[in-house]
Amino acid sequence: MRSEWLDLNGEWDFIFDDAGIGAKERWMDTFPAAQKIIVPFTYETRASGIGEEKFHPLVWYRRTLTLSPETAEKRTFLHFEGVDYHASCWVNGKFAGEHEGAYARFSFDITDLLHRSGENIITVRVQDSDSCMQPRGKQRWAGRNHDGFYDQTTGIWKNVWIEHVHATRVDTVKMTPDIDRQMIRFDFRFSGTDGKRDLFLETEISFQGERIRKFSLSVDSPWLTAEIGIMNGINGPWLQNLWSPGNPNLFDVEFVLYEGEREIDRVGSYFGMRKISIKEGQILLNNIPLYQRLILDQGYWRETHLTPPSEEALIEDIEAIASMGYNGLRKHMKIEDARFLYWCDVKGMLVWSEMAAAYEYSDEAVERFSKEWLEVVRQQYNHPCIITWVPFNESWGIQNIIHDVRQQQFTVSLYHLTKALDPYRPVITNDGWEHTVSDILTLHDYTGQGEQLYVTYREKDSITGSRGTYNEWKYAFAEGYSYQGQPIIISEYGGIAFKSEQGWGYGDPVEHEEAFLERFGSLTGAIKAIPFITGYCYTQLTDVQHEMNGLLTEDRKPKVTPDKIRDINLK
Description:
single chain, alpha+beta, seven-stranded parallel β-sheet, globular
């Protein structure tokens, strides 16, 4: 976080380019805007002011910007948190850059393209497709909603802002806690350090308003690593100051870069001291066994679809999850708004970060998926709430993984690439079934009766043995891979709907709350009764368009008394 930034959300000029003529006619110079759109909501949403559900493969945006004189000596960056799918940007008719991928954020240095006095014009062209080789998550591609697939998302769908920074600055800080050594490691990257001889970085760490560490380092290269002990100076027992769902302690940190005695960059951030590890079939949080009570969260809203309507809406979802006795969530097929992760950090909500799936396997799909997934892992690394990475789900995009060596190796390679960036969190290579190399064995089961669920899982060898199957049609592991003692979690179950609802859920719908609670309690109790299962994830938090199996409606109204759900979860 820096102090000099400007929010660019709000009204932009907007036009469809179904004929694909915008680039040839240079709309970046002369924009034939036909309507307005409210960014960051996509044209498919009512909140955008358009509400057009038909798919359009090319859309254009434009807005003007006037800079304040105080920014004249700074570099100016244009930031996009998410644009679906291929974005190209011009400033004052000159090309600023392009980015492919819907879920990772990206930035352009637009300094040299700006007029420091007068009006500037930012133009963005976004190209989307119905290709199943691009990571699309739950977005439909057949022109209609079906099963678990919903309206597509095209264009700018997350926040846009500009930031003014010094040419010599802190670029990134990767923060890695080590609770066993009671240290934090900072991996710094800088820009503009060439030819500079009198740079130094001052770092101050505080906890609950009290400074606990302050140190300075000479900066003589673009990279710098520092490990700092932080136990001394903290009041109270060390373990009470770690981050956990019940005690989400965060340390504030400020980095100030100096050239001589002149301050040239100041960045605020935070970190949590916590450790995720696996030992003897258990997942440990801060070296203590963790039983995960998760809920599946797809992050859709009626008026705004994938885009959160407000920061308050994000907070309300997290608080609703906690009120029902869950200690975490599996963010399904979506890379969520960064403010959501911030509030999960603050409120102590565990998160599984799961990539949006592609649905065909090819060299092109491998390249697109891998590139974007690695961007996401790097960008989300510092959030203590994230405790598990999930690149693949239910063999989507790797539909022949059970026997196709290429697809198996794809998941294995993503496992190891993820571990190369982050060796400290578990990685689930194919959530639900047909695992290859995976730190956790996760299983999906929508059986409607708790007794049947218990019978299926009570004998561990029946699902973990050679070619073990846990239902009539899926194996726990792909051919050539076997159980290696991993923790076991039922990472999808339930999906109960009411008969009165117009849509679909899993199994026979129930008549009323009492019947719902009976089934929910039976299923959840059956999972808890099996000692080697270390957690569960219920489907799901809210209804999503035509999928009507949430504990809350699409408008976040409880269908069942939250305290009764909480009682069952905490029993």
